[in-house]
Specification:
The chain is an alpha/beta fold. The chain contains 15 helices and 13 strands. Helix 3 packs across helix 5 and helix 11 packs across helix 14. The protein is globular and about 65 Å long. Bound molecules: ligand GMT. Ligand GMT binds next to helix 1.
Length: 373
Amino acid sequence: MRIAVVCYPSYGGSGVVASELGKAMAARGHQVHFVSYELPFRLRGYQHAIIFHQVEVPTYPLFKYPPYVLALTNKLVELARYGCLDIIHAHYAIPHAVSSYLAKQLVPEVVTITTLHGTDITLVGSDPSFSEIISFAINRSDGVTAVSRSLRAETYRRFTVHRPIRVIPNFVDLQAYRRRPNPELRRCFAPGGEKIVIHVSNFRPVKRVLAVVEIVAQIREYLPVRLLLVGDGPDVPAARRRTRELGLEEAVLFVGRQDDLVPLLSVADLFLLPSAQESFGLAALEAMACGVPVVASRVGGLPEVVDEHSGRLHEVEDLEGMARSAVQIMSEQGVWEDYSEGARRRAEQFDAQRLVDAYEEFYREILASRRGA
Ligand code: GMT
């Protein structure tokens, strides 16, 4: 198959899923064209059968807002006409599903698939400034997938969508993501033998990074811990401020964006994710694959990912409960080992091979149904 993958290139779950899926499809012999405004960060390094096409938007004094949707659509049309695409797979509905729809108006033989990831539905997409066009674009996609049952239900609840939505959960490469203990690195972060709590995100308000700092302050009343904050985003300054106010400068380490998470996850004892919304929680799944138990909020798709053997879920505002669970999981080595093994076992349910098969099958099904139509 000849597939165009449209995604955001920056740090964030939808770009990660799009990149890993595209790479897996290329490894299976398909021809994969990534289309975005920058090279997605998980695509660095040559891989056969992957071609990156950069979307450039011309500037003009009249354009207060450069028309990215048009430039993206134009690139897709070019590819469909001259590169002969079978499928355009848009990850994250805004604005990618709209560009796919427009491209199909010019090249009707191309099949369009949209994968809904989360905030495109729960936060931004349902804003009245976008909701009409996003409903329309979802309804006009030839195939639609969502990364969790919860996200599918939210889509039906918030939009006038009348198409079937296939749930294909996110996945993890279980070979790449496994615990690789490194006592030396562990000592660098926790020289006094403290436990290590980790949080990985794009530091947007929905992730509630300030709550992560608060929870760690509460854990420290019972257990010496260090917090590794991995990632970057708009809430970094506020998280630094709260860290200072709580007198936690020594205990909280801001390590910034990191491409390779496995070394960091491999020294961690617990992953904290107190998000206000989380359609799936890919970062939690990657941590679980590395044997890191999760304490998170009971929202969105998180209950579909974290079970009672791999971690604990609490109501969003229950920071005290999250701190208590964290202390219970980390205080006793035997308890921690049970959760760590449970986390890895649960992650094995989201094996990349099996879920890439599900996408490949979905592509074939939609292609067959469109061609038969
Ligand atoms: O908000 C983010 O974390 C970024 C966003 C994205 O699209 O990059 O993440 C969403 O998609 C991920 C991949 O499917 C999911 O694992 C995240 O749970 C989801 N984020 C939210 O729903 C807040």
